[in-house]
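for the recovery benchmark. tokens below, seq after
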């Protein structure tokens, strides 16, 4: 049986020293095997043997997503015959990027998810219902399957959508854990209520939620999380991950942020000038992967804005914990003097009961500043509803966007095009 890694329970100084040993191995591996980083080290005259500490990583330039697009094959560190799986990023913020994974990378992926599930209290013999796709070149669904298998638990690969099939599976097999996008929980609850299904009786205890924020910055449930909890009293666990990191940050039973796994990744938070922020401040997450064989990354800028919590967790782990993501750096909106991120706009719309679905657009107006428009799908429309939506925005965010009513079906088609794996709610049309 897999066990919790002991390093996560050691003092923070020991965790840092452990990571610095791992860092030197990672740098040597890149120097020996990565065409992209070999060229970078040579052009920048970087002597990697001189880099001994995490702070000294700042001597190395960042890796941008554009480099992964333009020089994709140069990041590959193994011969093709060692590649087992090809995947792509979701492409929600641009064109998808291709990643290759070796057998060792898949083992690492499974280990990451297995210890993450253990942190939520999961154990061998539990049954997980997977409500995300495992196909369409998607890393997450495969990672969850491999992780549950390594944990010694059972998994039901239902996939996304189809509430009727989800409930048929729950009634047949009685899973205790769902792996799901949280807004979909509300859809299956609605289906259950419309079809007289008593969803409290089937033994579901918790949901491990991906793709959407569940919590405020103080770790209390946000509007979406509270709506789920009010309807169905199951435990909700947030997880943050990306294909590029090949790693996830999942909440433990304390539910106070996703834990970093020090044997798998090194993290930095940087400001707009590329400097590491002070402890407790928000910054852009920069990652260096550890133990990745096929396509490791060094100081990769994720674009995600967050902060880290360093105080010891009540679960006994001393690893840093990530805050809820406040947004992507390139998606920041400056609207009527107020700085916003899409997640904050989503939160307002999620709390309005008659808004079935929505789209958020930011564009450039005639005077060169950001213009914000939301299109909402509702069953009925009125001036009173438009006023109420704007009032809720002003109460929460101090500013109100333009509100346009559309049919639920029209928005559904735009939100979920067949070629995309995740719903698209935000469209950046700025010049």
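predicted aa per position
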């Amino acid at each position: 049986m897999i066990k919790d890694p002991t390093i996560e329970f050691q003092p923070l100084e020991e965790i840092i020293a452990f990571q610095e040993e791992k860092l030197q191995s990672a740098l040597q591996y890149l120097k020996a095997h990565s065409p992209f980083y070999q060229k970078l080290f040579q052009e920048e005259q970087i002597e990697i043997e001189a880099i001994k500490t995490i702070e000294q990583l700042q001597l190395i330039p960042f890796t941008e997503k554009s480099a992964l697009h333009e020089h994709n094959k140069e990041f590959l560190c193994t011969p093709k015959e060692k590649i087992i799986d090809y995947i792509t990023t979701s492409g929600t913020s641009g064109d998808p990027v291709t990643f290759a994974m070796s057998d060792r990378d898949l083992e690492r992926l499974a280990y990451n998810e297995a210890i993450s599930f253990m942190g939520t209290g999961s154990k061998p013999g539990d049954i997980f219902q997977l409500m995300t796709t495992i196909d369409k070149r998607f890393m997450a669904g495969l990672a969850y399957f491999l992780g549950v298998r390594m944990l010694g638990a059972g998994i039901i690969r239902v996939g996304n959508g189809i509430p009727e099939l989800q409930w048929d599976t729950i009634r047949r097999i009685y899973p205790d854990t769902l792996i799901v996008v949280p807004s979909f929980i509300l859809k299956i609850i609605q289906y259950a209520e419309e079809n007289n299904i008593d969803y409290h009786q089937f033994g579901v205890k918790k949901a491990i939620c991906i793709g959407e924020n569940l919590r405020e910055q103080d770790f209390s449930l946000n509007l979406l999380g509270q709506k789920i909890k009010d309807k169905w009293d199951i435990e909700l666990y947030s997880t943050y991950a990306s294909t590029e990191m090949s790693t996830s940050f999942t909440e433990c039973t304390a539910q106070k942020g996703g834990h970093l796994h020090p044997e798998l990744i090194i993290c930095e938070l940087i400001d707009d000038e590329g400097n590491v922020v002070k402890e407790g401040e928000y910054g852009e997450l920069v990652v260096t992967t550890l133990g990745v064989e096929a396509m490791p990354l060094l100081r990769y800028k994720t674009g995600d804005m967050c902060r880290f919590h360093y105080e010891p967790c009540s679960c006994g782990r001393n690893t840093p914990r990530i805050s809820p993501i406040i947004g992507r750096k390139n998606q920041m909106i400056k609207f009527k003097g107020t700085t916003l991120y899409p997640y904050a706009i989503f939160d307002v719309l999620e709390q309005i009961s008659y808004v079935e679905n929505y789209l958020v657009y930011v564009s450039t107006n005639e005077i060169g500043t950001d213009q914000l428009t939301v299109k909402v799908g509702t069953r009925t429309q009125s001036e009173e509803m438009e006023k109420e939506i704007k009032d809720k925005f002003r109460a929460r965010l101090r500013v109100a966007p333009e509100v346009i009513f559309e049919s639920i079906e029209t928005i559904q088609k735009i939100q979920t095009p067949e070629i995309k794996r995740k719903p698209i709610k935000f469209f950046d049309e700025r010049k």
